[in-house]
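[Help] Beginner question about ligand-bound structures

Sorry if this is basic. My supervisor gave me a protein sequence and a SMILES string for 2-acetamido-2-deoxy-beta-D-glucopyranose and asked me to "get the holo structure". I don't really know what that means in practice or what format the answer should be in. Inputs are pasted below exactly as I got them.
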Amino acid sequence: MCGVALLFFSLLVLSDAIAARKIGVNYGRLGNNLPSAYQSIEILRSMRAGSVKLYDANPEILRLLARTNIHVSIMVTNDEIISIAANQTTANKWD
Ligand SMILES: *[C@@H]1O[C@H](CO)[C@@H](O)[C@H](O)[C@H]1NC(C)=O
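Answer (accepted):
No worries, everyone starts somewhere. Holo just means with the ligand present. The predicted complex, written as structure tokens, is below.
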């Protein structure tokens, strides 16, 4: 009986962990009274988010995220994407 309970609990923990890794958050920074970068990353961590999409490559946010296991996607703006896609030198200089 104890073994069954333990197995059930393990599956529950496992499925919970898998579900948490599937949470993805879009992290935009346009607005008023937004939490600081540090506070925002702490919120992502408390949500146990598995991935985050950023709308720009803010160095402070990237440094904070580098200390987490959160997967990061960084967006390129519409007016940048054509030149970045067409020119490797431009892509290398993008930040
Ligand atoms: C790519 O961009 C660089 C500067 O950003 C420029 O010097 C170079 O001519 C461009 N290359 C092409 C193939 O357009």
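A couple of things worth pointing out: Residues 23-93 form one domain. The chain has one domain: 23-93. Feel free to follow up in the thread.
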